[in-house]
């Protein structure tokens, strides 16, 4: 939803819930603090610094259509409130397997005929690519563990 001012926007958003969950004064305080940082060429705000750093790359500077501006700049209005929904993007864990992607039971032994590959087996981050969930490294591990599972299953049934 949109509105010309923080107070009007918050009022509209609060109408969506049983109780008014948002405090307009608190939100205005945060936005004004952030806007001060945008106006400051030597901003201490890590997010503003990050945006400026990223925009030193010419592709991003030209391709991003919204240039950084004060949120409360009337020329950039109206203000927009967006409802966000939480979802699980990565599991970072799951079913323990051996190198043949055979699922291991709580006793640490393979469960007969059960294989696990991909995110559910902890390949959405970490695994073959180290301990951290580095962006772009998930599909490789998912495919690799899927291949291992497929090969092991084929060998078992052969
Ligand atoms: C927004 C987003 C961006 C991403 N970008 C990248 C990227 O750039 N590079 C990269 O490497 N990785 C990326 N990833 C991670 C990568 O896409 C996933 O790790 C990978 O697709 C997981 O594959 P998967 O087969 O293990 O699981 P999934 O693709 O989640 O497959 C699981 C399947 O099981 C089905 N299922 C669930 N429950 C049941 C049930 N009870 N019965 C039958 N079927 C069921 C689901 O419907 C689903 O189709 C991204 C992930 C997201 C969400």
TrEMBL record:
Transmembrane segments: none annotated. Residues 21-139 form the FAD-dependent oxidoreductase 2 FAD-binding domain. Keywords: Flavoprotein, Oxidoreductase. Signal peptide: none annotated. GO terms for molecular function: steroid dehydrogenase activity, acting on the CH-CH group of donors. PANTHER family: 3-KETOSTEROID-DELTA-1-DEHYDROGENASE, KSDD-LIKE STEROID DEHYDROGENASE RV0785. This is Putative KsdD-like steroid dehydrogenase. It comes from Streptomyces afghaniensis 772. The lineage of its organism: Bacteria, Bacillati, Actinomycetota, Actinomycetes, Kitasatosporales.
